[in-house]
Design a protein that fits this description.
Elements (H helix, E strand, L loop, with lengths): L13 H18 L1 E5 H18 L4 H11 L2 H14 L8 E8 L6 E7 L4 H7 L13 H73 L1
Helix pairs in contact: 1-2, 1-4, 3-4
Length: about 210
């Protein structure tokens, strides 16, 4: 009886299935992306991801274990070289399955299986994402006040500059008006001198008339 045995046999015998998964894993490691059915991709994910985790520990024993599965020197070299360096900081989930249209003929569900760290388009889109800052109720009050005070100081500086710019033309006008006031004062002084001179002449004439009389 086969109770509890629920893995997908993929319609193949055990030796055939192991050989197929080994070849697919080597192709995925060398080309970084393959097109296959969804059922094979799910089975391949369980097969290849433990090998990628094993490649993080670059020892002779790890290389022998991985080679016993892949049976391909080029794929083992690529796995322990470039791929191991890229996935060093990733704790798991090295592959991605992207479903596509059904296959013509048998209408099988098709997909693209790829290594996550080799999709340049998705990596570029994820790079500019900025981390969001959260304001807490306890310690965020002082920070919020500090951030509010900075624009207030900047606004005060701008207002002072505007007032200075407005006052500058007024001073120029006052400076221009000063000569006019001096001219008025000089005119009044000349008129007073003329009046005093006329009074002096009249007083002299009166004194002459008295002497003649």
């Amino acid at each position: 009886m086969r109770h509890g045995k629920k893995f997908n046999h993929l319609g193949r015998t055990a030796p055939h299935r192991k050989a197929m998964l080994s070849n697919m894993a080597s192709s995925l490691i060398l080309h970084k992306r393959i097109t296959t059915t969804v059922a094979k991709a799910k089975a391949l994910r369980k097969y290849v991801e433990p090998l990628i985790t094993k490649a993080k520990d670059d020892t002779t024993q790890s290389r022998r274990v991985v080679f016993s599965y892949l049976q391909n020197k080029e794929s083992v070299k690529e796995l322990f070289g470039d791929i191991a360096g890229r996935v060093a900081s990733r704790p798991g989930g090295y592959t991605r399955i992207i479903k596509t249209n059904s296959r013509l003929g048998d209408n099988a569900d098709m997909c693209i299986m790829e290594l996550v760290d080799y999709n340049e388009l998705l990596l570029k889109e994820a790079a500019p994402a900025k981390t969001k800052t959260r304001r807490s109720r306890r310690g965020g009050g002082s920070k919020a006040k500090a951030t509010e005070e900075v624009p207030a100081v900047e606004e005060a500086v701008v207002v002072e500059e505007a007032v200075a710019e407005q006052s500058a033309p007024d001073e120029e006008v006052k400076e221009e008006e000063v000569p006019q006031d001096e001219a008025v004062v000089e005119a009044e002084a000349t008129s007073e001198e003329a009046e005093s001179a006329s009074t002096d002449e009249s007083s002299e004439e009166e004194s002459d008339e008295k002497k003649d009389s």
